[in-house]
Automatic annotation (TrEMBL):
Its main location: membrane. One of its GO terms (biological process) is L-methionine salvage from methylthioadenosine. GO terms for molecular function: acireductone dioxygenase (Ni2+-requiring) activity; acireductone dioxygenase [iron(II)-requiring] activity; iron ion binding; nickel cation binding. This is Acireductone dioxygenase. Its cofactor is Fe(2+); Ni(2+).
Length: 188
């Protein structure tokens, strides 16, 4: 199983809509791997005792975990928070999210600085590499329950674009160039 991912149109309609291009342009999991996005499908039932999740956490050193529910009524200043999550940014560390219930979209930039929308649903676990430009929004269901995983103490600092001089961004671009030749990843 793999998440649905596609290239998106860039218009000002509600960010919670799918924003498919016409015609639709789906992106395979292999293209996500090329830009450093990792994916697992892990049974979201009984996640507290799930052996696959336990192994992933051990193998990758994820020793901190919390649960976040995003929906109107559960988050103070819900609409404002959603707008903040949707601002294009990077993190100095990986962003690890495991969807337990509901659904939402992670948008990531590909090597040509084009948006790819990744639709996560219950059971989807993704890792966005440190330094990748991305953003998050709910879909029209307006609900998601996510497990957030971290190595060490949790850090939620978002560095809004542009961040070309940030060490995490420079490391990310360098790793892309090493893994795919000298294909540049620069802002347009």
């Amino acid at each position: 199983m793999a998440p649905e991912a596609w290239l998106i149109d860039e218009n000002d309609e509600d960010q919670r809509l799918p924003h498919h291009r016409n015609p639709k342009e789906f992106v395979p999991l292999s293209k996500l791997r090329e830009i450093g996005v990792l994916y697992w499908h892990v049974d979201p039932q009984n996640y507290e005792s799930n052996e696959e999740l336990k192994k992933i956490r051990e193998d990758r050193g994820y020793n901190y975990m919390d649960i976040l529910e995003l929906c109107p009524g559960k988050v103070v200043n819900y609409e404002e928070k959603l707008k903040n999550f949707y601002r294009e940014h990077i993190h100095a560390d990986e962003e690890i999210r495991y969807c337990l219930e509901g659904s939402g979209y992670f948008d990531v930039r590909d090597k040509d600085d084009v948006w790819i929308r990744i639709w996560i649903k219950a059971g989807d676990m993704i890792v966005l590499p440190a330094g990748i430009y991305h953003r998050f929004t709910l879909d029209t269901s307006n609900y998601v329950k996510l497990m957030r995983l971290f190595i060490g103490e949790p850090v939620w600092t978002a560095h809004n674009r542009p961040q070309e001089e940030h060490p995490a961004r420079q490391g990310y671009v360098k790793s892309l160039m090493e893994n795919s030749g000298a294909h540049a990843v620069t802002a347009h």
